[in-house]
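name: query_chain
kind: protein
chains: 1
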Amino acid sequence: MEKTAVLVGSSTGNTESVGEKIVEKLGNGAKLINVADASVAQIEDCKNLILGTSTWGVGDLQDDWEDFLPKLAQADLNGKTVALFGLGDAESYYDSFVDGIGTIYEEIKDKG
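structure:
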């Protein structure tokens, strides 16, 4: 069975809640990992990664992702399937809604 990790950065709990629902729907040993506690080894041990973040203000990445993203960029992602999901405030910040996932994408797009 291929291992799947759902990595989330969540300041208010909303992204974590969505991550929990994804893990529940996937079943089969999928695990939720908060990026505040994540390690590169945990990521490299998984075949499938689902990365979730919220976007704050005018396109700012969630704080825990700011700290973890440089580590993720160093991970070996060759052969992995990666998906992204994002949350944000579309009403107040429609011009930068879910820009956080774009920040993550740009950092890892050429990593495997």
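note: The beta strands are 4-8, 31-34, 48-56, 60-61, 81-87.
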